[in-house]
Every structure is written in C-alpha cells, then in structure tokens.
Design a protein that fits this description.
By secondary structure, the chain is an alpha+beta fold. The chain has five helices and twelve strands. Bound molecules: the ligand Nc1nc2c(c(=O)[nH]1)N[C@H]1C(S)=C(S)[C@@H](COP(=O)(O)O)O[C@H]1N2 and molybdenum atom.
Amino acid sequence: MPRRVFLGLLGGAALLGVVAPGLQSELAGSLVGGAVGLDGYQIYTVTGGIPSFDPATYRLSLGGLVERPLSLSLDGIAALGFDTMHATFQCVTGWQVPNQTFGGMTMARLLAQAAPMRNARYLNLYSFDGTYTESLPMEVAMGPGVMAVTHMDGKPLSADHGAPVRLFVDHYYGYKSIKWLSHVEASAQPITGYWEHYGYPADAKIG
Ligand SMILES: Nc1nc2c(c(=O)[nH]1)N[C@H]1C(S)=C(S)[C@@H](COP(=O)(O)O)O[C@H]1N2
Ligand SMILES: [Mo]
C-alpha cells in the first residue's frame, strides 16, 4: 500500500514499536518529513490523519470583523468564479514543487463578498482537522498570490492535499498554506499559527 496511506492508518508515532525495525527508522523519518506523494509533494498532517468531510454539508465560513458573515457551500464557492495561478510550492524544510497550477478563488475575491471592516488587520485561518491554524496580515491576504484552492493541476483537490479547500500563499513557505480550511476570521489580532508555536517565524516570506 502507498506509504502515505499506511501512515494515515498508523495515526502517529505511538505504534512505531510494533512495526519491523527496518521500517521503523524509515517511518520515523517520514513522520518528521512527511510521506512522499507521487506528485513530488510530501503529504503533511500534524494530526496523523486525513480528515473526512461530506461535500453536501461542507461549509467555508468567513466571520469576525466583516460586514457580511458568510457560510459558503462548495456550489456557493464555485458560483463566485474560478481563478487560476501558476507558482512553485516551497516547504521550509527544503523540498519544492515547481510549475504548479492552482485553481479556486483569490482570497481577495472571497473577502470582498464578506466585506472586512476597517479594523480587521489580520486573517486567522482554521482547519477542520481541529488542530492546524495560520494567520496572515490582511494586506498579504488581499494580495494576488493568496488563493482558496479547490483544484491542483486541473483536478479537484485530493483529500491528502486538503480537500475540499486549502490555502495557497505564493512567495511564502508552505506552512502558511493551511489544508482542510473551514473557517476564516477577520480580526484585529493575529493568532499564533500551529508551526509558529514551535518557533517558526510568523512572517514566512521566502527569501
Ligand atoms: N491542516 C494542515 N495544513 C498544513 C499542514 C498540516 O500538517 N496540516 N502542513 C503545512 C506544511 S508545513 C506544508 S509544507 C504544506 C504541505 O502541503 P501538502 O501536504 O499538500 O504537500 O501544508 C501545510 N498545511
Ligand atoms: Mo512545510
């Protein structure tokens, strides 16, 4: 079975003691470095699992300091339009995947629907994996390189890449690109993102 599926079933490091010793060191590396996908990405999930969702009931909510709080279904998101962008995906640990096509909607277009208030200086982002979080200054989130992604390379986003909606933040390290996005909150204050808790800089701009 593909390694990333196996890792998903394993559900974390707790079971490492019961697998063959040879595999153990390989797995230990994978749990730190992620499992390598066929498309050149490493699949990361800090919870150890790939969260499931029901396309019929999934909602992306936009709230906080906005004039019009929104709760968008997948059809509702698609009805707003479809943007594409070409970029390189770059993880802070060194791997990168060039020449990617991301499809979905720019955060600027989504946010325009919700109409952020003047005092909304940050966008705080939450995953339905229940654990991962991120935050962007509003001026970054409103830029052309930030997209709510529903498609990668012309295909609907796969579950392990964050289906049905993930973020992509061009020119920023991959940890800003939160997967399984479920809630976007306009706020006067940033939250401390998941990896920022472990010392990664909140400003993850590359270079
Ligand atoms: N929910 C969630 N989003 C996440 C992560 C994660 O573990 N959980 N890892 C981040 C990191 S560090 C990177 S580099 C990218 C990797 O994206 P991929 O798993 O699609 O390759 O997802 C980012 N978004
Ligand atoms: Mo990363």
